[in-house]
């Protein structure tokens, strides 16, 4: 069974940076496409971005609200994907989930999430 | 971006009831629609993919239907463990977008 575990969340001041990590186990990570999805308090789920596999050129795509501020990378040797978040805003406060792509646009499985709070 | 309008936003029903949630896309997404179950503190779970395909291991009381712009998700006989928030998601175009969620409660 594939497992996904996020870490790295915490409290950060506006304008600050944070790096989230997501480790997967139980299947081959090398060919996996990975996405980050977030959920702000009281809001619905919001796709943040994805990274394709090395075979897919490690292509990265981002949602408009985070483009230019957030960056996704991967280390296949560690079965880990990262979300580097810079210039954080209070609106970035959310639970951040990591998810494996079952298909190009279907997320399965997900991790339990890690909470990021941006506040002064 | 494709807007996903989900209704209702909350729903109260009794054990054994048939429950239906709808999701409307702002443009044709063919059958590229998924349904997820969310419980606090837990990983969201995929239940239905490609509008009507039940993920292996998911109870058969869950089902989905529709194509184009109008979709539905049904629980044929509500169980206590089904208390959760359910969200639709279009996988047709980037950026992937979700409905706002339907919070299901037991009456």
Features:
heterodimer; A: 120 residues; mainly beta; B: 107 residues; four-stranded antiparallel β-sheet; 0% helix
Please render the helix and strand layout as text.
The complex is a heterodimer of chains A (120) and B (107).
Chain A lengths: L2 E5 L2 E3 L5 E8 L8 E6 L5 E7 L8 E3 L7 E6 L4 E6 L8 E10 L2 E5 L3 E5 L2
Parallel strand pairs in A: 2-11
Antiparallel strand pairs in A: 1-3, 3-8, 4-5, 4-9, 5-6, 7-8, 9-10, 9-11
Chain B lengths: L3 E4 L2 E4 L5 E7 L7 E6 L6 E5 L3 E2 L7 E6 L2 E6 L9 E6 L6 E2 L3 E5 L1
Parallel strand pairs in B: 2-11
Antiparallel strand pairs in B: 1-3, 3-8, 4-5, 4-9, 5-6, 7-8, 9-10, 9-11
What can you see in these coordinates?
- The complex is a heterodimer of chains A (120) and B (107).
- Chain A is mainly β.
- Chain A has no helices and 11 strands.
- In chain A, strands 2, 4, 5, 6, 9, 10 and 11 form a 7-stranded mixed sheet that branches.
- In chain A, a hairpin with a 2-residue loop joins strand 9 (94-103) and strand 10 (106-110).
- The N and C termini of chain A lie far apart (40 Å).
- In chain B, a hairpin with a 3-residue loop joins strand 5 (45-49) and strand 6.
- Chain B has strands at residues 4-7, 10-13, 19-25, 33-38, 45-49, 53-54, 62-67, 70-75, 85-90, 97-98, 102-106.
- The termini of chain B are far apart.
- Chain B contains no helices and 11 strands.
- Chain A binds chain B through residues 4, 35, 43-47, 61, 63-64, 97, 99, 102-113, and chain B through 1, 32, 34, 36, 38, 41-46, 49-50, 55, 87, 89-92, 94-101.
């Amino acid at each position: 069974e594939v497992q996904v575990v996020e870490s790295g969340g915490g409290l950060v001041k506006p304008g600050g940076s944070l790096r989230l990590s997501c480790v997967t186990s139980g299947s081959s990570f090398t060919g996996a496409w990975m996405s980050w999805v977030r959920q702000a308090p009281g809001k619905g789920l919001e796709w943040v971005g994805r990274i394709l596999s090395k075979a897919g050129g490690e292509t990265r795509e981002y949602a408009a609200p985070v483009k230019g501020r957030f960056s996704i990378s991967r280390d296949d040797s560690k079965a880990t994907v990262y979300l580097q978040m810079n210039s954080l805003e209070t609106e970035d406060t959310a639970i951040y989930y990591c998810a494996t792509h079952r298909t190009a646009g279907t997320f399965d499985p997900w991790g339990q999430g890690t909470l990021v709070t941006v506040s002064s | 971006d494709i807007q996903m309008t989900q209704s209702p936003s909350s729903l109260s029903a009794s054990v054994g009831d048939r429950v239906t949630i709808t999701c409307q896309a702002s443009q044709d997404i063919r059958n590229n629609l998924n349904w997820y179950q969310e419980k606090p503190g837990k990983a969201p779970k995929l239940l239905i993919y490609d509008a009507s395909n039940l993920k292996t291991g998911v109870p058969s009381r869950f089902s989905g239907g529709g194509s184009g712009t109008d979709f539905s998700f049904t629980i044929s006989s509500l169980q206590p463990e089904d208390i959760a928030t359910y969200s639709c998601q279009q996988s047709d175009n980037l950026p992937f977008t979700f409905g706002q969620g339907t919070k299901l409660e037991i009456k």
